[in-house]
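Case study: EF-hand domain-containing family member C2.
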Amino acid sequence: MAPPPQPLPPGLSLGRTLGKEKFHKSQHWGFCNNVAMLVGEDKPGIGGEPLPGQKLKPKYSVFPAGMGSDAPAWVAFDKQVLSFDAYVEEEVPDKNQELYRIRHCKIYFYLEDDTIQVIEPRVKNSGIVQGTIVRRHRIPLPPPNEDEYYTIHHFNINTEVIFYAQRYKITDCDQFTKNFLRKMGVRLNPPASRPDDPYTKERQKILDSMNPLRPYERVDTLKQFLEHDGHVLRFFCVWDDPESMFHDPRELVLHYYLSDDTIDMKEITPVNSGRDAVPFFLRRDKLPKYAPTGLYQPGTITARTVLNVFGNLVGNRGRYILDNRKTGAVHQEFYRDSDLKIGEVINVWGRKILLCDCDEFTKDYYRTKYGIEDFTPVPYKTLPPPKPEKTFPPYTGFGSEEDSLCSCMGLLPKPPQKDFKKFLEKDRSGLESNILRFLAKFVTDSPVDKDRKFIICYFLSDDTISVYEYTQRNSGILGGKFLERGRIKKPGQELFKSEPSEYFKAQDLFVGARVCFHGHNFHLVDADEYTINYMEKHANEFSVADTGFILKKLKDIAEPRSREIRQVFAATDPEHTKVIAYEPFRNLIVSITDGAFSEHEIMTIGRYYGVKEEYETDLHLLLAVAQEQLKKNSFENFGQLSAVFVYNDCEKCGVLPYQMCRTICKSFKLPLVDDLLEAVLTMFEDDNKQVEYKKFLDGLNWRENQIPAFQTIRLPLKNEDDWNGQPPSLPFKKIKYLPLLDDLFGKEE
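Here is what the predicted structure looks like once written out:
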């Protein structure tokens, strides 16, 4: 039973509704919110289901379900195009030579968005505008279906398509298009023949029947130019000119251009040779091989040969034609890349040039193309005469040696140059002083000078030394500056000599060394911690601080007595604690090496195998220091800080990881230095590396849990009256001797 007809809106008659078939086909009336509205026929019913008798038309190409990926078309078919061969037939009413014209073109269908593009290949001298005929866009179907667009289902071989009233005949397609259409379920038609344009065919017959009046030979060198443009072989040559006055060889550089097989040569003019420097020894051109009969006369070699057919038989007029077989032509050979080898002699317009060497690119070229591996150069350069040794007059004693030496270097004396780079690297920078400090004593038997103590400072920036005397009460000697800062010569050198004097360097100063500064003998008995750490850090410069070098030296001395030395160390440790004190260890090393080791070398071994003492940090002292810093910076936001800790404690167990607690404190800009904050957090860690943040906050809260003010702890100064014969101060007291014995003699079975 047919549905009842819908009432018409007021003011619209039935005659006007049925006035246009097209309008009735594409539009119909519907209701929206009880208001009659004109809607399209492709609008579905309730729930998206088509209405009775309604056929929905797809807007884009529909691909079979279950094939390929689920990605959208603009992703799945990106850069995938179907290509069809087609032609179009046009009428030509305004020309007598042709009644119609066949134009071949390409139809491209882009799968990603169903766009179509038509391109006609350009033909030389066609006389018509070619190229893009239809730009890329979606093309509607011809009437009466102009509301729809071409999809992939409208294309097949041996069919016709109409683009804007222009009929295109599809004759064939490429292999990718065939495979794609077969997968889509399209049954392909057999390919159709493509007709030729009658006017173009007629013109081609005329062109083929025409013979050129001057049949020049075409030599195509474009391929060689494109492959080898910029590729140049370079050889180093020598020409022994026999006609020169002094019979000296002349060095040349030969360039062979692979792009056109040309050669040029340049001469290497030595300084003060007396010859004029010219741009080229040989201008760039093809270099002919020297013929046995000599050079050819001008006109002997020509590009083509012309024959006189009749001679003088017909009057005085001849008939000339081009000799394609080149009868009697003279062929001249030119030098090619295969003729150039190291050790070969080439003839350059009568001059014998010897090829002696080549660069790396040339070697790689011959190695790849010709398989040559021997590139032994030919020695051609004469050894330069030995330069006379420059002698300097001896030092006169006026000024410094460096300043006097600079006056002998040139007519205009210049001040001596300082090592500015070393000054920038070794100058004081922040906490890096780059100054080595040693404690020294006089080497003397005088009871007055025996107890005097000095501080020797070595400045690494300019290798200067200064000496200060330690002030001692009731000694009768005024302390202070003992020696002005400057470079100090080593003793035992001749004063007035031509060679520069030797000065003390950083490697000459170490604990246990004896040095002489301007007649004063010093014994270095100790060094500060910075000096020892610097020397160990730069062990490659200081052999006395190089653990590997010292162990090798000790192994060479003690290896023959390894069993005896093990017994001596075991006897020193009767309780088998595997450690001994530093003083017995030092005495054992001295007895083993018979005094061959310096005090600094023994100290380096002791520091390497020493047991560092661990100090327990007082929690109350740390909290007192922390509260003092918070109080000075007026930090009182403990309530907000506690709320943040509780918020981050998701399990409400009262503990948080160490890193999270540190991050929270940093975000609140807690005015504590990093070392102090990390130390306080570590004091409140449990066995699982979790921080009890409630105790941590209570300890920092100087308002509610103030710790009494602490007093600065003053450490007693070490007694410096016992330096003579005593070992230097060390941050440890015990030595692990078993690892030392294992490194020297191997592990005992």
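For the exam, be able to explain this: Confidence is low (pLDDT under 50) at residues 1-26, 711-727.
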